[in-house]
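hiii so um. not sure if this is the right channel but i have a protein structure encoded as tokens and i wanna go backwards to a sequence. like what aa goes where. can anyone help
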């Protein structure tokens, strides 16, 4: 009987193995309801696959909006854990820096804007990154896609910051086919890199397809049983320019708005890419011991096809539409699957969560702002996180205030400074949080036509303090600042507390030596030594010329807002 039982078990296991192999290419095996109760115990630390999209809004995924066709993402999220109280940063570099360091922007010096291609700045070199910690834990680490964390020195490149291999673009935005990237008129260069060299001659293939192909190649050549893998797929999509093969646009031909139609097609390409990656995970033996994380980097830009509806605001703002992110976790290792998590989670939490999951020592990294959220995600335990500092940007201050705007609270905090914090159910914003409109889905061809004014925020001019109960009012329609001055004071005090821990802002002026015309036509590192760098010290300090600098900064930010509107970042 024992022999027969053993034989039966072997047969069942063999059948289970074979049942995964007969699935066709580009398909994901169906799970039964009983699968949700099965938890695979890993023999080694799990393979970690982190997929980051660019500018994907809250309303730009199928399980939030059926007009967007994302069957793979919907299925993976439904079988895993949907993160419905998950926060990122409002623009590219800040989200990526916090993912890589587990620290708020105020603790890295990157609290203002993004790192532009000509700026001699990058992720602080004295900080140990997430992939470096995973390497220490024995992982093979690979990155494919958009970096946008600075590259002015070789020490800033992904291969010097913890990745064994890198294939992708270093700047914030490139053409999906030619891989050309511009930082102003006449300041354009090629931006596709293999390791630390320029990958010339690779143009012509759509970047999402090219990056997916590289990920599948890495998965096919790595040995999953010998070494755990960390794969960071940082897709350029769905950032502008709005480009897509025509075959993907056709299913959305019924959409009246052309920008929305192209954008939706690009989201569908992302869905196909994830389908191909997950198929490869199964095919090459990773899946049963893997954790797949899907996340956007910030909210969408509605004027280029994205949608954050029904949330307020958009990319580049501290309203919910700019910072509440689409995200989910899919893994056979989750103890409680097929559920929605309302636990408070922030992009800084991935650092300690993944290091802990990998068996690494989180305590080796001091000053983390993130929390290990794996018990919360996997088992549904209470979140250890109680608050989120969305940011403090001391270089962006509101110049004019109206009576009753909140200046009476300035004895605690200078409310002209752009800042935002979430504590428990409450969210506070000060200064200028950015355009606070509720932008409906783009269903008309002439968006944003005069009908849009029906949902525009007409009030708030000259205000500098807003307070919302986000749990009860997730769309930020009822400002409670006047009714709850006690809560305002408490949250202002928290901002003041965080500000005392902030490091100086690093936002250097553009360096003309970065011009691709001086570097063979490509965006590449251009500073070779510390002596070369001294000329462009970009740490802002208070001094006699503060007013002059602030005027220049306001002028810069006005131009930056225009660039946001025209999708230059």
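sure thing!! here u go:
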């Amino acid at each position: 009987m024992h022999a027969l039982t053993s034989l039966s078990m072997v047969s069942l296991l063999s059948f289970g193995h074979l049942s995964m192999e007969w699935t066709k290419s580009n398909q994901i095996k169906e799970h039964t309801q009983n699968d949700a109760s099965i938890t695979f115990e890993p023999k080694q630390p799990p393979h970690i696959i982190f997929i980051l999209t660019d500018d994907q809004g809250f309303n730009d995924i199928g399980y939030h909006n059926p007009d967007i066709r994302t069957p793979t993402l919907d299925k993976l999220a439904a079988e895993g854990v949907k993160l419905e109280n998950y926060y990122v940063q409002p623009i590219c570099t800040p989200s990526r820096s916090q993912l890589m360091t587990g620290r708020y922007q105020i603790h890295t010096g990157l609290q203002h804007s993004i790192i532009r291609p000509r700026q001699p700045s990058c992720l602080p070199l004295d900080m140990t990154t997430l992939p470096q910690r995973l390497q220490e834990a024995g992982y093979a680490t690979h990155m494919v896609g958009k970096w946008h964390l600075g590259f002015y020195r070789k020490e800033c490149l992904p291969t010097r910051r913890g990745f064994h291999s890198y294939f992708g673009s270093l700047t914030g935005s490139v053409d999906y086919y030619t891989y050309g990237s511009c930082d102003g008129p006449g300041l354009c260069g090629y931006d596709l890199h293999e390791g630390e060299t320029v990958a010339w001659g690779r143009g012509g293939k759509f970047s999402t397809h090219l990056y997916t192909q590289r990920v599948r190649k890495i998965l096919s050549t790595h040995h999953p049983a010998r070494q755990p893998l960390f794969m960071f797929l940082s897709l350029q999509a769905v950032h502008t320019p709005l480009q897509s093969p025509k075959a993907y646009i056709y299913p959305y031909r019924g959409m009246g708005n052309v920008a929305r139609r192209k954008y939706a097609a690009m989201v569908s390409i992302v869905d196909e890419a994830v389908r191909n990656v997950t198929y490869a995970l199964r095919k090459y033996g990773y899946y049963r011991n893997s954790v797949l994380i899907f996340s956007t980097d910030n909210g969408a830009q509605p004027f280029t096809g994205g949608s954050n509806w029904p949330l307020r605001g958009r990319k580049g703002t501290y309203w919910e539409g700019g910072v509440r992110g689409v995200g989910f976790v899919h893994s056979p290792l989750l103890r409680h699957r097929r559920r929605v998590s309302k636990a408070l989670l922030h992009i800084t939490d991935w650092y300690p969560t993944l290091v802990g999951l990998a068996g690494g020592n989180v305590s080796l990294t001091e000053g983390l702002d993130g929390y290990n959220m794996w018990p919360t995600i996997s088992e549904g335990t209470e979140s250890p996180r109680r608050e989120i500092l969305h940011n403090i940007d001391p270089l962006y201050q509101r110049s004019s205030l109206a009576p009753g705007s909140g200046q009476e609270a300035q004895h605690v905090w200078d409310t002209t400074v752009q800042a935002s914090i979430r504590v428990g159910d409450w969210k506070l914003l000060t200064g200028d949080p950015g355009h606070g409109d509720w932008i409906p889905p783009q269903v008309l061809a002439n968006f944003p036509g005069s009908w849009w004014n029906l949902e525009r925020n007409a009030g708030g001019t000259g205000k500098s303090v807003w307070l919302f109960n986000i749990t009860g009012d997730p769309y930020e329609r009822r400002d409670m600042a006047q009714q709850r001055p006690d809560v305002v004071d408490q949250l202002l005090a928290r901002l003041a507390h965080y500000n005392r821990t902030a490091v100086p802002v690093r936002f250097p002026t553009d360096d003309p030596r970065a011009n691709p015309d001086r570097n063979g036509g490509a965006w590449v590192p251009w500073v070779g030594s510390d002596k070369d760098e001294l000329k462009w010290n970009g740490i802002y300090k208070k001094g006699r010329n503060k007013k002059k600098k602030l005027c220049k900064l306001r002028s810069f930010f006005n131009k930056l807002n225009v660039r946001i509107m025209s999708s230059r970042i």
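oh and The longest strand covers residues 387-397.
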